Amino acid sequence: MKSFKFLILDVLLVVAGTLFAQALRDNFEVVPANIIGVIPYLLASILSAFAVVLGFRLNRTVWRFSTMRDYLMIAAAAAMIVVTAVLLTFSFNRLEGLARSIPFLQFLTILVMMVGARVYSRIHYSARRGVAKQFTADDGQVLETESTIIVGLNRLTELYLQAAHEFGHGKPRIAGLIGRTGSHTGRLMHRYPVLGETEQLPAIIQQLRLHGVAVTRIVVTLPPNTLSSPTRGLLRDLESTSDIEVNYLTMSLGLETGCGDGTSGAADPENDAKVLQLQVSPAERVALSERSYWPMKRFVDVTGSIILLVLLAPAIVVTALLVAIDIGRPVLFWQQRPGLGGRAFRVYKFRTMRPAFDTDGRALPDNERASRLGSFLRRCRLDELPQLFNILVGEMSFIGPRPLLPVDQPMGASGRLLVRPGLTGWAQVKGGRTLSPADKVALDVWYVRNASLAVDAEIVWRTILMVLGGDREDPNAVRQAWADIAQRAPAARVDSIVTADRNDVQAAAAPVDCRTSLAS
Description:
Elements: H1 2-25, H2 32-56, H3 68-93, H4 102-129, E1 146-151, H5 155-167, E2 173-179, E3 188-189, E4 192-197, H6 201-210, E5 214-220, H7 229-241, E6 245-248, H8 249-252, H9 272-277, H10 282-289, H11 293-311, H12 313-326, E7 332-338, E8 344-350, H13 366-369, H14 372-379, H15 387-392, E9 397-399, E10 422-424, H16 426-429, H17 437-450, H18 453-469, H19 475-488, H20 494-499
Parallel strand pairs: 1-2, 1-5, 2-4, 5-6, 9-10
Antiparallel strand pairs: 3-4, 7-8
């Protein structure tokens, strides 16, 4: 019932946005001819809004907890509402009587109203919760004198600060934050200052004590396996030589799995050299995750996905209808796969196979489940159109290693999870299905280390050739990837790595479930 109420509310916002767009177009003057002309377009917008809001599941989100991801989804939904309304109205009366600027103005007003309603809900909820109050004694003196320092500047830090504000009632008292480098010193995060970097922690604690601030707890929001050895030693010394308690938040929340470098708890000396071939050292992981190319790549992903969703909206709708008619509902198929940093996400595709069981519960063979439409969609890669939404919300990229099932993700290949998985990638255009799993992983790790605008442009071009001509293995690229891996391996192990048969790496592969982000 709640979701229906929010569905109606979103549709009313679309109606209001459409009428406001017409008012803007007419400079807020009443022009009867223009009002009559916009009525068919308004009705088309209402029909489109019902379908799109339900399809994007916007009515099921909790407005007071909306995030940037929700706002990006609203932008895509607003664009699809406008495109669908234009197509419906054009088929009815060829947009007669409708000013050509109305769709653009409508997109902006719908976006502002739908996002604004959610932002207002967040602000209203925060204001209603009120500012956290300090506990004070009857004589007015503050009881709480103990303070906390947070080590790490990341999304988990932000969530911790929000939770402390909302539920802490003045506890914990945050003295400040500690960054990994000095570049953030003096800046603010949720009004709390960044006091310095981790190496300065003892001096910062002493300085705070001079100001009457007693630090009794250090909360570390970084995964322990991403901290340098000196930093871990410094935290151990502080805990053992003082009354300061050190809490690793990722471990307290059960997020730490110990898979940071791709090794497991059960060591196998025989496979050590083989697994090492596909590993990326912790120091290199940090350097790769901070490359300046990734923000530009993300900007291209967001811009490109919005443009393609608008342009391909009719094709997506038609494909969904054909799948529903030929294969049945639901029209989408999803699988959970590890993405950036090993975080699980759902990758979506159009269904290309009929149900696995008949009405009597009997398992059907693949030849009975096969569909000509499904074969066509797979051959033309049209079944992957829904992944444009994965790209828009940041779970995927246009270019990157293809997301694998958890059981297919080799333990020694966590380096391929340093970037968002892609619709297409270096391994796909250099052999695709003809390659062994180990060769695919080697090519993926090579891409993570060498990604650039030129490499991505080559992948786009070769993807077009692959769709037209099929998979073709490139032995030179495979050899280059393995040579690069051997060259970057620790010097003491190079001889054993070079002599190891690269195809034997598959024997070292094991299921992995890395939930901790490798790129903080």
